[in-house]
Specification:
Blueprint lengths: L10 H8 L1 H23 L6 H27 L9 H17 L8 H27 L2 H4 L3 H32 L3 H26 L16 H10 L1 H30 L5 H8 L3 H18 L1 H17 L7 H37 L4 H29 L14 H28 L4 H19 L1
Length: about 450
């Protein structure tokens, strides 16, 4: 193996790294889509929607500490394997176990069930951080070249699409194959855990970390000081806001879709799982389209355009009255979603480059940790939003069919997967407009970072 550099990072190594996105997205998206509805709809856990939502918010608070802490520790880790790979290796087996356990709750007693869910969620997210978040921290190190990063990001999203298909298409099929949801969902959790572990193996084998990026002990900063330094970065603050709002809009839609499909359209799990696959028919070709736009207009402009496209597609939710229209809307949504998936990773890499000029250190771990908190917190908040809408619009979880759905129920579901996400995206557009790292300023950062890293190699 050779050390990573923008001059010798082969296509094979780019693909080896990108394969990890299969597992990263499969396990993440399935939990957003299915975890709430599994506990709420299928198991009939004796907790109110708000009660379940609050449990999920508790684990989000844990993540606010867990993600940046593990990221910070990995930044200052020094081993022969590198800074990141030891964490990935240690976390693989526990992640598989927790991925199974999260779908096997004791459901007889609401108190026991609540305690179990909180404990398993905390363990599950800790190992997700060690594996997926730390794996993702390798991305900015692979290359400093913007075009090269676009290529790597495109590979990431292509393999990520397979992960999305597994997470929001195949996973519900596995879960719904058995008459007993408990068996179906627990088997699904185990399979997704194994897929995630296997998808990380190529990175562990073929990617070698740069020794010059390992931070010497004398420059080790405290955890809280690292957080403060990160948040002082104006580019990072606006990036965090954009990422949070994008992920929140996406999570609200995804967590509400099972209720929308079953309540408004009367689709069974198998039927709406097939429907969701239509979105990928346009996501894949749109990735290549957005790369071309970014090469000409830049990443910030391209993300802005893709967010507008995504918001327009969400507005069409109010026109969905049958499965045909639903499939057309999903196809349109895929165009904007492709850009929304691709560009945030590149923006964060640019922020990390700028931070290196300020601190003279590569701190991918702490930045991806804080970024991971934002993603997980948005997931938790989306479940809270879901619980509030269910209560506010009096949606009956035990009788969710088109014939039983009242006008108030239907309005609530359309607001959940349409209006609320649109308003969130609009806020995200404003924050992206204020994001400063683009154009000539970005080019200057790239040139200075290249010179700095050449000096480190010497």
């Amino acid at each position: 193996m050779v050390e990573m550099s923008e001059n010798n990072l082969s296509t094979g190594k780019k693909i080896s790294f990108a394969i990890g996105n299969i597992g990263g997205l499969a396990i993440g998206q399935s939990s957003i889509l299915l975890l709430y509805s599994y506990y709420f709809l299928y198991l009939g856990v004796p907790l109110s929607p708000i009660g379940i939502s609050l449990i999920l918010v508790v684990y989000g608070v844990w993540d606010a500490f867990n993600e940046p802490l593990i990221g910070h520790i990995s930044d200052f880790t020094r081993t022969k394997m590198g800074r990141r790979k030891p964490f990935i290796l240690i976390g693989l087996v526990p992640l598989v176990i927790c991925s199974y356990l999260i779908y096997t709750p004791p459901i007889n007693d609401p108190i026991i069930c609540s305690i179990y869910l909180i404990i398993i969620l905390i363990l599950y997210e800790t190992f997700v951080t060690m594996v997926v978040t730390i794996w993702f921290s390798l991305f900015p190190e692979l290359s400093l070249d913007q075009k090269d990063r676009l290529v790597i990001s495109r590979f990431l999203q292509i393999f990520g699409i397979f992960g999305l298909i597994l997470g929001i298409g195949v996973a519900p099929l596995i879960a719904g194959f058995f008459s007993d949801p408990f068996i179906g969902y627990s088997l699904m959790g185990l399979i997704l855990g194994l897929i995630t572990a296997l998808s990380m193996v190529p990175t562990l084998i073929f990617i070698k970390e740069k020794k010059e990026y390992q931070i010497i002990e004398e420059k080790n900063k405290s955890f809280f000081k690292s957080i403060v330094i990160s948040l002082k970065n104006k580019s990072f603050r606006y990036f965090v806001l954009v990422q949070f709002l994008l992920q929140l809009s996406y999570s609200v839609v995804l967590s509400g879709l099972p209720l929308f499909f079953e309540g408004v359209l009367g689709l069974e799990t198998f039927e709406w799982s097939i429907q969701l696959l239509f979105i990928f028919l346009t996501v894949i070709p749109s990735l290549f389209l957005w790369v071309k736009v970014a090469e000409r207009k830049g990443t910030k402009y391209s993300l802005f355009l893709s967010m507008i496209s995504f918001a327009i597609a969400l507005s069409l939710v109010f026109l969905i009255f049958n499965s045909i229209i639903s499939m057309i809307v999903l196809l349109i949504t895929g165009v904007g979603l492709a850009g929304v998936m691709m560009f945030p990773t590149i923006l964060l890499s640019d922020v990390i480059d700028e931070d290196q000029l300020i601190t003279n250190q590569r701190r991918e771990g702490i930045f991806n940790g804080v970024s991971g908190v934002i993603v997980k917190l948005s997931n938790a908040i989306s479940w809270l939003v879901l619980g509030i809408i269910i209560e506010l619009f009096q949606i009956d979880r035990n009788n969710l069919t088109p014939t039983a759905l009242t006008l108030l129920n239907e309005i609530g579901l359309r607001i959940l997967v349409g209006l609320i996400p649109i308003l969130i995206v609009v806020l995200g557009l404003y924050c992206l407009y204020k994001y400063p790292l683009s154009g000539e300023r970005l080019e200057e950062v790239k040139e200075r970072v290249k010179k700095l890293n050449l000096e480190l190699v010497k």
